[in-house]
Amino acid sequence: MSSMANTRFETTVDQWIIQAVTAGAASFDELLVALPSVYPTVIPAALDRLATIGVLSGEAHARLQRRSHKNLPVVHYRQRGQVLPAPHPLDYDWRFTPEAVALLLQESQRLNPDNTPLALLGMPSVYQAAIADPNRPAILLDATRTTIAALRHDGLSPGQKHQVAAQCDLTRDALPAIHAGVVLLDPPWYEDHMRAFLWAATALCRIGGHILVSFPRQAPDPASRTTG
């Protein structure tokens, strides 16, 4: 990440923390749950920045770095209408914001007006929103057992043929027979995983369909620049 992009990200995280504290976050756990997929090690640095410039008092800075020792993630997600378990970095589980979910579904509908199946690879939050429309055919493939169990337990995977959440590790498991009009994938940002997800997407997408993938943005290579 370039220094400029890094600065913008830090500024955004600082703003999210201020909003969360204003809304009542009073411990590190509550802050972590309130922020949209911010890696835990990023938060202490942001708290230090805000304390240094006087946005946070010394008492608030110390309080927000303490663990609450409560099972907060499940409670908070339930209160917000979420049924998915709290995301964990070891599961490569980073959730999209509601705005991003809405944008992805809108774009999928635009690319797939005949409403052929939408395949979602490692995107449980998008699947959860997609099946709110009972007429939208959607298939989720996700490797995390607890995620699939939560969707089924809460009735969000009705068991109908056109709306299915299935546990599937795309790096090793056999793929179901799907001919999706649009495939959305959010692979872990490691080369082996990205290759496996892309291979699976091509196998699941029908001829003439569309594949949308979440990849990290890379700064331009200075060596590749030309002058003129």
Question: Can you describe this structure in just a few lines?
Answer:
The chain has 228 residues and is an alpha/beta fold.
Write up what this structure looks like:
There is one protein chain. 42% of the residues lie in helices and 13% in strands. With 228 residues, it is α/β, with parallel strands linked by helices. It folds into two domains: 3-81, no CATH class; 98-213, Vaccinia Virus protein VP39 (Rossmann fold), CATH 3.40.50.150. The longest helix is centred in the N-terminal third of the chain and has 20 residues, at 3-22. The protein is elongated, with a radius of gyration of 20 Å.
Main beta sheet: 5 strands, parallel
Number of strands: 5
> How much is the average pLDDT?
79
Helix and strand sequence: HHHHHHEHEHEEHE
Number of helices: 9
Low-confidence stretches: 68-81, 155-159, 219-228
Give the spatial strand order of the biggest sheet.
3-2-1-4-5
CATH fold-level name of the largest domain: Rossmann fold
Radius of gyration: 20 Å
How would you describe the shape? elongated
Q: If classified by CATH, what would the architecture of the largest domain be?
A: 3-Layer(aba) Sandwich
Strand composition percent: 5-15%
- Please report the distance between the alpha carbons of the first and last residues: 26 Å
Determine the CATH superfamily of the largest domain. Answer: Vaccinia Virus protein VP39
The first-level CATH class of the largest domain is given as: Alpha Beta
